[in-house]
Amino acid sequence: MSSVPKSLAALVCALILVSVAAWPAAEKTPFTAADSLSVKSFSVQSVTDDGRFIAGFVTTPYDRLGTDHHRFGDPIYVAPRPADVVILDTSTGQMEPLFRDKVEVQRMTWSPDGKTLAFFLRKRNSFSLQVYSRETKRIREIRLKSQKAISSNSPLVWTNDGRSLLIALRSPAWEKTSRDAFREATVGPVIVYDSREPFLKWDAIRDRNLLEIPALADAASGGVRELLPEGRHGDIRIAEDDTFITYSLIHPVATHYGGSESGQDGREHELFRLDLADGAEPKILVPRTDKRRTYAWTEDGRRFAWAEDGDIFVQTVDETEPRNLTADKSAETPAAGKGEGKSPADKNEKKLRFSVVRWSPDGGRLLARTDKGYWLFDPQTGDRDMFFAFAERDKESRLRPEPHPGIAAWSPDGRYLYMTHAARDRWERGFNRFDLQEKRMDDLVKDSGLYRGLRMSKDGATFFFSWSDGDSPDELVLTGADFKDRRTLTDLNPWIREKTLTRSELVRYLDADGRELFGILYYPVDYEPGKTYPLVCEIYETFFDNGFHSGMNIVANQGWFGLRPSVNLEVGYPGEAWIKGVTSAVNQLIDRGLVDGAKVGVHGTSYGGYATSLLITQTDRFAAAVNIAGKVNIISFLGDSPRIGTRNYNAAEVGQDRIGATLWEQPFKYLLHSAVLFADRIKTPHLLITGEGDWNVPAGNTRELYYALRRLGKACVWVNYRNDGHGIGAAENEATYLDKWERVVDWYRTHFEKTEGK
Questions:
Q1: Which end of the chain has fewer CB atoms at under 10 Å, N or C?
Q2: What is the spatial distance between Cα 56 and Cα 58, in angstroms, rounded to a whole number?
């Protein structure tokens, strides 16, 4: 066979390259509801002390389908949550899967030396204790020498010598009694509710989830040592020297009304120390109290602190009485310094209310905050210094207050605090570092990107955080302590670059009261300047930060604008917020020449669905509206969701619903905030979407509005998914998820088209 001349071969290659270069680039395809189920995210579960290896999960929204929503509240039911379990080598960026397929894993944690990863693997309806060796790259089950099952809520903590793991077990009788209690409350055949009982029936069932037996499992032999009898234990911690544990013991007393703001939860709490020497008896550190406390612990586990009524208390595990560090809570100025300030006798000054943030790495200082700023305490002397003052807000200003920086990490040498940064009037976000020695704040990174979840390796040399440009899904980023060299470790969704995605913009507007508010505007994927487009609003409460949003991408790919506007909710009068804020935001976009005012839709989920139905009783400016899993009658809602206990009463009286009073104190306000009572005023075609398995907002509550609107001869469609839960994402399977989105989009399209020519 004769050979081809080199010159001719070169010419052929050149022609091929030119031809390929001339091919048109593949056109991007629309982002769809089906695509939204495939968007991957990475969840960091455990990091080795040197930051070299990260164990985590890769999941998609599809993985959350398949939940049996009718079994919510069943203590023995664990919703399926399959995931790709991976180990990420931060030095190479290589992501190694531990299993071929998705599995259900809980509580991944590295051993102190970083060589062994422990986790719980679900097998049918039980969990087994597994360990993965980085050296052998093999997974081994630790076969526990116990007849008791591992609790589905079990902690998983290595002892500091790396020999044992703290876990929690359940007695053989626990499953039967829990199953019987759930069946009695759901199947009957006779179900009795008795107000003379101390607990609501579902509170008593839910509290069974707390019953566990703390134990130590030997990582080599599987031997099990039960540490305590069955009880409701919480916040179990192992001391740095492995000689003792501390834990809280929870005593349910009675169902409590009043919400989390009261500082009580219907339970009493004790704090104990248990020496791990054989035969030791628990020692009470904090006696039984009805106060619900959150303790901050030093790394060695020997000292703890908490805040109560604005005071800070500290105590060691060798003491039985705490010390109050803030008995004199005088209103100090930023320049006051250690222990100095105005006299506590000056009654014209507002007394400071402290809350605990964290201990320094060496346990020698305590970080706290007030509404004035961040403080450092000497736990021995009580001396305090406000080292960082918050920007003061003008009480007369209607502008959004300056966000206070959050504390993300404290360097191991105790010198630097790593803080979050966010501007109040623009997308300027990132991280700062405060030098406690020089009293100086330095910018580490600050731009329009979205920075979240900052974590520091134990040695302080490596930092991780999630980052997005604001319109794309998050990726995991690695950097050093100076944040100068950043490296993206993941590329989870390369396929999404071939999809048409929206771009977002922060919009500013004034509500009807002249208060400055912000919203997030999402552009149609085919946007052309000078044209007007339909607009779909998604409403809830306050929106500011952007970030990848599947729902708004689905909207934008229909050729519509999307908007997530903020509102200013006032206790006692929350129903006015949406008419004052949402309509103002829409008007501004119409004035800018972006939106066709005849083609504006609105929807929301849960509280946002409630807001949607309430809003259209006050205005007819929307062409279509969709309530997804939102209540319409706040009075009947008080007792509509028995599986969540007192939540609905608390939400109305002191929580999210913001009525601010009981039904019997101010019944008229409950009437004013029930959309069904004003159904005769609704002119907007209304789609209602519910799930029969919704434990949060039962379908029957939303159904009331359908019957009312039908009776009044108004346009309304109610779609109830028999096996779905709360919201579009809580779908039985892919088919019902896609069906919901198809109905929402068709509802808007149909009613936008009806406005043509108007």
A1: N
A2: 7
> Above 50 in pLDDT, residue 9?
no
- DSSP, collapsed to helix, strand or coil, labels residue 547 as coil
- In this prediction, residue 13 has a pLDDT band, given cuts at 50, 70 and 90, of very low
What are 591's two structure tokens? 């004035």
Query: Nearest to residue 733, comparing CAs of 686, 684, 693, 699?
Result: 693
Q: With a cut of 90, say whether residue 219 has pLDDT above it.
A: yes
CA 523 centroid distance within chain: 26
* 397 CA to centre of own chain: 30
Look at the block and give the residue holding tokens 């876990």. 167
Q: What angle do CA 344, 347, 352 make, to 5 degrees?
A: 60
Taking the C-alpha atoms of residue 76 and residue 167, their distance in angstroms, rounded to an integer, is: 18
pTM: 0.91
For 127, which DSSP code? E
Radius of gyration of the chain (CA): 29
Distant-in-sequence contacts of 184-191, Cβ < 8 A, 24+ apart: 185/73
Per-residue pLDDT for 2 more than 70? no
Burial class (CB in 10 A: 0-12, 13-18, 19+), 497: exposed
Summarised one tens digit per residue, pLDDT across range 495-529 is 999 999 999 999 999 999 999 999 999 999 999 99
Report whether 256 contacts 266 (CB < 8 A). Answer: yes
Look at residue 670 and give its three-state secondary structure. helix
Query: Kind of pairing, strands 416-422 and 429-435?
Result: antiparallel
Its sign, for the CA torsion 283, 287, 289, 292, is negative
CA-CA distance, 568 to 573, in Å (whole number)?
Answer: 10
Q: In the structure encoding, which two tokens stand for residue 441, read together?
A: 């704040």
pLDDT tens digits, 169-202: 999 999 999 999 999 999 989 999 999 999 999 9
Q: 236 in helix, strand or coil?
A: strand
Q: What is the 8-class DSSP label of residue 331? A: -
Q: Give me the amino acid identity at 211.
A: L
Dist. CA 463–CA 479, nearest whole Å: 5
State how beta strands 499-500 and 29-30 pair.
parallel
First and final C-alpha spacing in the chain: 76
Neighbours of 494 (CB within 10 A): 8
- Three-point CA angle 661, 665, 670, nearest 5°: 65
Amino acid at the residue 336? A
Structure tokens at 222: 């599987």
Task: Please enumerate in sequence order all residues whose Cβ is within 8 A of that of 194, keeping only pairs 6 or more positions apart, or say none.
Answer: none
> At 257, is the pLDDT very low, low, confident or very high (cuts 50, 70, 90)?
confident
Quick one: what percent of the chain has pLDDT higher than 70?
92
